[in-house]
Specification:
By secondary structure, this protein is α+β, with helices and mostly antiparallel strands. It contains four helices and seven strands. It has one domain. The strands form two sheets. The chain has a four-stranded antiparallel sheet. It has a three-stranded antiparallel sheet with strand order 1-5-4. α1 crosses α2 and α2 crosses α3.
């Protein structure tokens, strides 16, 4: 029988995080039903869109990396990709405002908020 080639274990020197962990790190949250009430949940979908668009715009060759979780597997992103992507996004989209809408290249709209004071200390 052949060796299982679907999964390959790798070791990296840099930090890998899930989209929800990145959203928590940068305090990017969703709004509740398009109202200005912050929903107590992280905006992981927006983080994924930001990173994917950054990878495409900058022609970054990045392997899709997955990590096992209690409910299956989830994609993780290396710090060398997520950090510049999120910081560039927040600098462009959120110059001095904490409440924002973002329209992704695929047409989806996201309303989000983040903590300005926490971003400046990263």
């Amino acid at each position: 029988m052949g060796k299982n080639t679907y999964y390959k274990k790798i070791e990296l020197d840099e930090q890998l995080l899930f989209d929800s962990e990145i959203a928590r790190k940068y305090k990017i949250y969703r709004y509740k039903n398009n109202k200005n009430e912050i929903k107590n949940s992280l905006n992981a979908k927006l983080v994924t869109v930001i990173i994917e668009e950054y990878i495409q715009e900058n022609n970054i060759k990045c392997e899709e990396l997955y990590y096992p979780t209690f409910s299956g597997i989830a994609r993780v992103y290396p710090e060398s990709v997520y950090k510049p992507a999120i910081e560039q996004f927040l600098e462009k989209q959120c110059a001095n405002e904490s409440n924002q809408y973002y329209k992704a290249k695929n047409g989806a709209k996201y309303k989000f908020t983040y903590s300005i004071s926490d971003f400046t200390t990263i």
